[in-house]
């Protein structure tokens, strides 16, 4: 059997789903229906995998998840603030759709790096 599910992996899956949701307005405004459909299909797959991972977690692992989701939320807010500052300093106004997508991407990257740095031994 492969690696066991962990709350850290589930928090990353949740972050990936939030990232996919954050990109939806970008594709709606841009008129990219094909990409929008692909993102929706991938979002459904990530949702199913997340539910399966949730069912495989023990009660002790599920108890650790709220703290990880809180850290994910802080990282997403930090990513949005970081990208807002970056675009304010170094580019023209790009639109809220792109700002949210870029901020969510940076936030998920920060969350993944924080999990990697604090990996249990």
Radius of gyration: 16 Å
From the spread of the alpha carbons, the general shape counts as flat
Please describe the biggest sheet, giving its number of strands, its sense, and whether it closes into a barrel. none
Taking the alpha carbons of the first and last residues, their distance comes to 21 Å
Question: Order of SSEs, N→C?
Answer: HHHH
| Beta-strand content estimate | under 5%
Summarize model confidence as the mean pLDDT.
92
Secondary-structure-based class equals mainly alpha
- Helix content range of the residues, please? over 70%
Q: How many strand units?
A: 0
Number of helices: 4
Given as residue ranges, the uncertain stretches (5+ residues, pLDDT < 50) are: none
Task: Explain how this protein is built.
This protein has helices spanning 7-30, 33-56, 59-90, 96-117. It has 121 residues and is mostly helical. The longest helix has 32 residues, at 59-90. The mean pLDDT is 92.
């Amino acid at each position: 059997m492969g690696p066991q599910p962990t709350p850290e992996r589930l928090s990353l899956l949740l972050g990936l789903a939030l990232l996919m949701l954050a990109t939806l307005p970008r594709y709606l405004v841009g008129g990219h229906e094909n990409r929008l459909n692909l993102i929706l299909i991938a979002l459904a797959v990530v949702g199913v995998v997340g539910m399966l991972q949730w069912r495989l977690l023990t009660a002790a692992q599920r108890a650790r998840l709220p703290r990880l989701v809180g850290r994910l939320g802080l990282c997403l807010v930090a990513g949005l603030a970081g990208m807002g500052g970056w675009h304010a300093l170094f580019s023209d106004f790009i639109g809220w759709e792109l700002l949210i997508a870029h901020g969510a991407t940076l936030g998920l990257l920060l969350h993944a790096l924080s999990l990697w740095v604090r990996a249990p031994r």
